Amino acid sequence: MNGVDTMIIDKVNDYLNSHSSSTTLLELCFYIKKNIHRIPNLSIDDISKESLISKGQVSKCIRKLDYENYEEFKNACIQYLDLISKRKKILNPHQSFETNVMYFTKDFI
């Protein structure tokens, strides 16, 4: 990967937000965004079959996202998911909105 270590989801979102004409990379970015939580358990063949993009085109798109190969891309997805799982949850879904606001405010102050 290049010197700048950009999160996979940032690369995907940047591409999705800056391109509107249908391309293979655009379709793969939509697929990645929707399925990023599954990618660590998928092979490149699985992604190819599910996204209806040839294995060669998937590899080419991964290189366009600045990853040398599928393994590096997969590791970037794992790192992103690991980071997300370690983030402190701001809102507790088991508490009321008022309680969440109270705890958030208390933590913030």
The average pLDDT is 88
Query: What's the shape?
Result: elongated
Query: From the helix content, strand content and strand pairing, which structural class follows?
Result: mainly alpha
How many helices? The count is: 6
- Output the helix-strand order: HHHHHH
Strand coverage percent: under 5%
Radius of gyration (CA) equals 17 Å
Major beta sheet summary: none
How far the N terminus sits from the C terminus, by CA atoms, comes to: 39 Å
Helix content: 55-70%
> Which consecutive residue ranges, at least 5 long each, have pLDDT under 50?
none
Report the strand count: 0
What is the topological layout?
Layout: H1 8-18, H2 24-35, H3 44-51, H4 55-64, H5 70-86, H6 97-108
Helix pairs in contact: 1-2, 3-4
Structure description:
The protein is mainly alpha-helical and 109 residues long. It is built from six helices and no strands. It has helices at 8-18, 24-35, 44-51, 55-64, 70-86, 97-108. Helix 1 packs across helix 2 and helix 3 (44-51) packs across helix 4. The protein starts with 7 loop residues before the first helix and ends with a helix. The mean pLDDT is 88.
Short characterization:
With 109 residues, the chain is an all-alpha fold. The protein contains 6 helices and no strands.
